[in-house]
Amino acid sequence: MGERVSIGLDEVLHVAKLAELAVREDELRRLVDQMNRIVDYVASLDEVPDDPLAQPFIAGPISVALREDVEAPVWLARPPAALAPEFAHGFFLVPRQAAMEDQ
Amino acid sequence: MTATAGQQGSGAATARDTGARLTRAEPLNAVLHWSQELLDAEGARVDAMRTPGPLAAMPVALKDNIVTVEQPTTCASRILEGYVSPYNATVVERLRGAGAMIAAKTNLDEFAMGSSTEHSAFGRVKHPLDPARVPGGSSGGSAALVAAGVVPAALGSETGGSVRQPASFCGVLGVKPSYGRVSRYGLVAFGSSLDCVSVFGRTVGDASRVLSTISGPDPLDATTVDRPPMGVPKALPDLRGLTVGLPAEYFPADLDGGVAAALRRTAEQIRRLGGEVREVSLPNSKYAVPTYYIIAPAEAAANLARYDGVRYGRRKVGRDGDIRTLYRTTRGEGFGDEVRRRILVGTYVLSAGYYDAYYRKAQRVRALIAEDFRRVFEAGVDLLLTPTTPTPAFKAGEKTEDPVSMYLADVFVCSMSLAGLPALSLPVGRSEGLPVGAQLVAPYFQEERMLAAAGVLERHLDAAAEVR
């Protein structure tokens, strides 16, 4: 982490954009302070010497036995048609959200 | 009248009694969804079973991040308000197959992110012994219901201590199994390398039976380990032959006096019961909380990307009809403060230029933390004993302004989650009237031995006694 530059307003806005998260103008200052507090705290891992040969941790047993790649039905409590008001030819019909393809 | 477990052939009566207890417990705000009608249907279903099963007519509550077809699953978030899953989680199918009755869906910190259940979109849960205090979190609703005697057992989920910490605060048993022991099919994902469905019980016996029922491989969850389900531990007369390690790093000088006294009493009792107690060291555990608060938010940021207003729950359409505005407005308004903070931190540590410095580094430190445990167990230690929490239950509002002080409530429980190890919290006494929990930690997949030892301690320690 080395020389950490503190997180500013622009950085929080940039990260919020990456995260697809709207932030309100009136909460920005508080978010900047809290993110700095959290990132400063986790930067205490700087104390641990870097070992380039160290392996990252993998959760679970050494080798996870993957199941056979066989297609099997997934049991639903209700048929797909019961999950949507409009359902046709195996597709859900949903309201148009945006003009992505037309632009 | 408190909850009892496994009254065979008494589904209908249990449904009525449980409904009455749930009604009386409403001031705790521990429950998000329940109805007498659904409880009665569960009672009738159990009464009609040909073979009652090991959990016959046991009412079990579920944390509201475990999906069910009969009730909504909200994760205590506005973004999932009204969402009903089209399938049941594997743990729900297994509980029902064993004769258990699903009693209620319980309140939690939004998306299981928090240590006090104050971060619920539907209001905080109150501690059953002192409404001004928190029950812990994030599975605070489940813990409070079991502690109040409404149900004998409940499911919660752990990512970094979210069952053991509230179990300690509320004075009930809370057990986190090994990573891969219990199916997560139908558990709403938070931190996928950490998440475990976990169990609360009034007694070690009840929690063991529930864990035994829900454990075992599941073809619908490739991260379950292909080993037989956990057996129900046999009752041991004493602790002869057991070596228990006390890691020095978990007994700091500033540990709460009541917690320290309760742990001293527990260690003495282990010795009296024939166990050997020795001091050990887990030097990298001091990095557990910062490591956790890089890895868990990073995984959360990825897992919570799916709540975009298109596929699930609530949708907020922007004025200009642009799809990105829809995503951002839905997520900005649908998630609460703590979830948004963690998504931002997680996105930051994964972003270009920071990934190696934070996420990769944290994964390496995580390996060091796990290696410490492996070394201690290989040196002949069977179980570790630590405090579960640095203090008894704190007051509501005490830690909400400073996120880091809230994170430190999990200082003794994070490391086991990072290492994927089984661990439990057992009530071992009270300090100024509030419960104190002791934590036992076992090697990978040795839950049975850990629960058997907890059963012996449960018989020989008065958990209601004040300790000094």
Please give a structural write-up.
The complex is a heterodimer of chains A (103) and B (468). Chain A has 103 residues and is mostly helical. The radius of gyration of chain A is 24 Å and the shape is flat. Chain A has helices spanning 9-18, 28-42, and strands spanning 87-88, 91-92. Chain A is built from two helices and two strands, in the order ααββ. The two termini of chain A are 42 Å apart. Chain A has a two-stranded antiparallel sheet with strand order 1-2. Chain B contains 14 helices and eleven strands. Chain B has helices at 11-24, 36-47, 90-97, 140-147, 164-170, 204-214, 257-272, 288-303, 323-334, 337-350, 355-378, 403-407, 414-419, 447-460; strands at residues 31-33, 59-63, 101-106, 153-158, 173-176, 196-201, 243-247, 276-280, 383-387, 423-431, 434-441. Chain B has an eleven-stranded mixed β-sheet, with helices on both faces. In chain B, a hairpin with a 2-residue loop joins β10 and β11 (434-441). In chain B, α8 (288-303) crosses α10. The longest helix of chain B is centred in the C-terminal third of the chain and has 24 residues, at 355-378. The relative contact order of chain B is 0.14. At the A-B interface, α1 and α2 of A face α8, α9, α10, α11 and α12 of B.
